Amino acid sequence: MKTAVRGDVLTFRGNPFREAERDSLVFQRDALVVMENGRIAAWGPAAELLSSLPPDARIEHYPDHLILPGFIDCHVHYPQTEMMAAFGEQLLDWLNHYTFVTEQGFGDADHAREVARVFLGEQLRNGVTTGCVFGTVHAASVDALFEEASRHDLRILAGKVCMDRNAPDALLDTPLTAYEESRALIERWHGKGRAEYVITPRFAPTSSHGQLEMLGALAAEFPDIAIQSHISENLDEIAWVRQLFPGCRDYAGVYQRYGLLRPRAIYGHGVHLSDAELEMLHDSGASLAHCPTSNFFLGSGSLNLRRCVEAVKPVKLGLGTDLGAGTSFSMLQTMNAAYMASQTHGKPLTAAQAFYLATRGGAEALGISDKVGGIEAGMEADLAVLDLRSTPLLDFRMRHVRDLSEALFVQMMLGDDRAIAATYAAGAAVYRRDER
Ligand code: GUN
Ligand code: FE
């Protein structure tokens, strides 16, 4: 059964940090995206494609809307949904006072399921069709998330957090149980529908040498599986890592030593990485997730993303909300914060670059750009439909917009969940704003 959505389409065929916008960005007015069996069967100008559709094909028309690849959130903690906006602390105190308290609740599978449902519902309300998601130390937290995600047939990446020191006892595993439980989750979920497992050491300070060794061994057994963690977010954290791992040259050196830097390894933050560490990430093929709302919220600093993406040895970069340190599920609001972060370094992120990071750039950072992150025949049919006049202010502001770049910039600065008119996953509408 073929279905289609009709409206203006925006997607990327290249990288607007390295190529001119006209070569990297694709914009088609009044396009048709034809979907079949969960994939994009064809797309192009509606005038050319309409006649190829069977007469009974269902076409959803979105005049004055922009059809985008579904957004990709490269770094997010679903269990922290219930503790967003926790007052007053920076990273290490915030973890101890809020995060490690909240995450203990996920020993209860019913609680995990309820939070997973709220979390995925919010992602879909924000046009996010793929997340790379941290669970808690409890394997059941990941079962709950994958189960809920499978109800919407989402492409989702997630893993059980591994941590065996420097946290409350109730949140600790061991080197062996981290290995065994992660391995069992891989066998249970990896490649089931669109679920992908991610090996997930929380960050260097909460894993012993023994645990990092075991997770390195697991990673070596599964060379194609993704890895996620945190790196170089906060200055006190970095000093602590230096103390805990005196034998390693720097923070990136810790992950390298245990075989955790490689393609499809994605690290949150990287705000304070040295040139040598960025080079290590490039050489290994690892990626970074830029989490600007979180970096501002926790006072961690602001990433100079051009040091990553425009270096001679570039590091792949995606955008992360990093909830619950991040302040919004909205990738538009995350782009807004990424723009502000770029301004603190004196060179503004363009709208095209921001939309690229939130779609194809994120997919490349996660190693899934052959499946999602773009609108192309053969790719999985994950779409976000953006209403360009979603608030009275945006309606007014859009009357004064001169070109596409300005329209996109206004959307990412002023838009939020209200701008998402519909979200499609594997060709099916999984959210419609006006059907609340
Ligand atoms: N570093 C280690 N754990 C976390 C976390 O849960 N959130 C953030 N922002 N940083 C971390
Ligand atoms: Fe995080």
From TrEMBL:
Top enzyme category: hydrolase
Pathway the protein contributes to: Purine metabolism; guanine degradation; xanthine from guanine: step 1/1
Keyword Hydrolase recorded: yes
Domain Amidohydrolase-related: 67-401
Entry's EC annotation: 3.5.4.3
Pfam families: Amidohydro_1
Record has Zinc as a keyword: yes
Catalysed transformations (reactions): guanine + H2O + H(+) = xanthine + NH4(+)
Cofactor(s), by name: Zn(2+)
InterPro entries: Amidohydro-rel, Guanine_deaminase, Metal-dep_hydrolase_composite, Metal_Hydrolase, Metallo-dep_hydrolases
Keywords, in A-Z order: Hydrolase, Metal-binding, Zinc
Top-level lineage group: Bacteria
Note accompanying the cofactor annotation: Binds 1 zinc ion per subunit.
Gene3D superfamilies, per the entry: Metal-dependent hydrolases, Urease, subunit C, domain 1
Family classification: Belongs to the metallo-dependent hydrolases superfamily. ATZ/TRZ family.
Protein name listed in UniProt: Guanine deaminase
Biological source species: Pseudogulbenkiania ferrooxidans EGD-HP2
